[in-house]
C-alpha cells in the first residue's frame, strides 16, 4: 500500500529539519512534502504552479501547518482549504511556536483539528512529533 504524503508547511529551515528528523526517528515512512510558505502550500493542495501536474484526488494524510508564514499565513491556508468540501476530512495540525491564545482560538474557528505548540528543546519536540505521528498517521482514520 502506498503511504500518503505528509504536507509540512514550515518556513524555518531549522524547524523543518527537526520535524522531518523527529518523524523519521520515530518510524514515520510517509513521504514528506515541504511547502515553505502559504502560497506554496495552496499551490500543492490545489495543483497549481509547480504542482499543476499532481493528482488532486490524492490528499495528504495530514498537514502540519505553521501559522507565521511569508506570502500567505497559516490562517489563509486554513481558510482557503476549509472553503472547499474536498478538504473537509484532511486533518490539519497547527504546529507553531505561537503562544497567543487568539491564534489557538482562530485556528479552531477555521477548523484545524489540533493545535500544538513547538517545544524549544529538541528532545521534547521529538517526543511531541512522535505522538503526532502515532495518532494522526497510525490511529486516526479519514475517508480516502
Can you give a write-up of this model?
The chain is of the alpha/beta class and 144 residues long. The protein is 40% helix and 15% strand. The chain has one domain (23-138): Response regulator (Rossmann fold). The protein contains 5 helices and 5 strands, in the order E-H-E-H-E-H-E-H-E-H. It has a 5-stranded parallel beta sheet, with helices on both faces. The longest helix is centred in the last third of the chain and has 18 residues, at 122-139. It starts with 5 loop residues before the first strand and ends in a 5-residue tail after the last helix.
How would you briefly describe this protein structure?
By secondary structure, the protein is α/β, with parallel strands linked by helices. The chain is 40% helix and 15% strand.
